[in-house]
């Protein structure tokens, strides 16, 4: 017996049909879909589409495979399904993709919610979504559909070249509400922060060359934890996963930009290490060509003001090398107060250890003006 379609106000979930083949072929040749579904044939042909459309293996295994269709036109917008079903544990995994012409409209979130509700009604107790953190759009779908992040599954997915990559597990239980997961770090208003002199924008793909230059600067390397320049692969992953780390509430990495020229000048990060206590930490660095222009102080004020106003962060800390007088002046000018001296706190160059001065800022301490 064929399953009934699932109707929602924004999408219709129905069985795939032969007349969807052209849209499936076009969508599955999209670079983004092929990037995150590396087992997909390349190029993807009409024959591949028809073979997949007629494959009922997911249904036979207790899962499902639906076309996401426009309720008005019935045109294919994407697909969603339940697979990797474990009947003993009453759990499965939801997978989805959106056609290029359907993105940014919320259709995948609506479809994911609808399929999860159908699965729970049919006896599933737990549904997972596995996401590559280089795919922040998929992270947004999982969070918006009520799936909670649970951690990293190392090497759980295979790349097209046979190598393996990590994925993050998101899950909903049958009793969980279908409401979006509340984020600890919201998006920036308008996508950036600025005071007219310095602009802060999220780090992302395309910043690799700048980050390589920044973290190859000797005095920046010396204050980095650990004091070792990151290799190109580490930089690539940091840029690719930055938006997802922000969405998960772990950290916010931002590029300091000279507002007058648009040139990237430095980096500032917010690390939300203690959400239970409402404490986070900032760290920053600036290329030598942009020093002496109060960029670090301005960036610190912008970021801390936003954090205190828009998150549950109640206390911001920072640390400085006792020998780094410049950074201590930055923090003092922003309103941070010195609270302690931590001996041998951090790894130093050549295997040694260095002391660290602890600074802290409360909302009422912030100095908004020079």
Automatic annotation (TrEMBL):
Residues 11-168, 198-364 form the N-acetyltransferase domain. InterPro entries: Acyl_CoA_acyltransferase, GNAT_dom, Ribosomal_N-acetyltransferase. It holds the Pfam family Acetyltransf_3. GO terms for molecular function: protein N-terminal-serine acetyltransferase activity; protein-N-terminal-alanine acetyltransferase activity. It comes from the Bacteria. Keywords: Transferase. This is Protein N-acetyltransferase, RimJ/RimL family.
